[in-house]
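Give me structure tokens for this 387-residue protein.
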Amino acid sequence: MPVITTIEDLRVLAKKRVPRMFYDYADSGSWTESTYRANESDFQSIKLRQRVAVNMENRSTATQMIGQPVAMPVAIAPTGLTGMQHADGEILGARAAKKFGIPFTLSTMSICSIEDVAAGTDRHPFWFQLYVMKDRDFIERLIDRAKAANCSALVLTLDLQILGQRHKDLKNGLSAPPKPTLATILNLMTKPRWGLGMLGTKRHGFGNIVGHVKGVENMGSLSEWTAKQFDPGLNWGDVEWIKKRWGGKLILKGIQDVEDAKLAVNSGADALIVSNHGGRQLDGAESSIRALPQIVDTVGNRIEVHMDGGIRSGQDVLKARALGAKGTYIGRSFLYGLGAMGEEGVTKALQIIHRELDLTMAFCGHTNIETVDKGILLPGTYPVAAP
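Here you go.
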């Protein structure tokens, strides 16, 4: 076993252990992948100010996200097909998050169902991410199931009314059900560790959908249903309806524009996530970290602003916090850990990010995450809100 010290180490190991079609699904963006790459690289140009002779004792990264205590300003992002990175992946991720003291967000398009995750974590509160489908009866029942499972926040994704084109998925035959090519079948045969895990679980389909929609009883009928269900007509009136139906904490995911941020405030949501869907939707869109300051400057005093996209280290978390994000989300960093080593890998990813966050915060002269602001950044190296 190689020594794991960074998220990149976990990525390399996950690439070896996860079948190509599922690894590529997680580790890719749409079209030319320029936004996917910018999400990560734009963090690198932001430079930190090192301070010395500061008392670095008694450090704390603890804070709150939407009023809920968290061990650090990080949540696990909702990611589709997580249970194909590793058998029972959503349950393992939720367990690791519970032990670490951060939120886990379950995707509508998960392999393990809401009920599976609730049972697998002894009904510990987790967050549920909702895609709006045309079948409103199904959406109402999905919201009710999230309530029944003790979910403590609903994350409503607004930027997937239609699907961005992801070339790797098309080439790998990734669909529902999968249509693998000869190359992907041969690749599957080289992943015995993954295969044994999958043989040991009954969870192979979209657990929140199969068996919960009339006429969708298997992966074949699911493909036809999902192709027609993502709702291109989604609008702010639907957000109001969902907020009322849910009745609890609501987070809006997929905000990249100041005008949409203002509408998010008017919707009465508790938080918004500055996000471009990990570069998987509109290629050529601005990176999340560059979009963040303008949105914080415009609405940050009226709604809690979070962000995701490109976070591969605790330093990235600290930089986002310095630019006004009250919380951040990790998607790929979590999936790399899961694909590499299951629950142990997720825990390792969280430990890596936390240690980097803690040490970097200290080097920048702070012992409490609540006091971190733009003062830790070198002027001229970070994006600023336009006048």
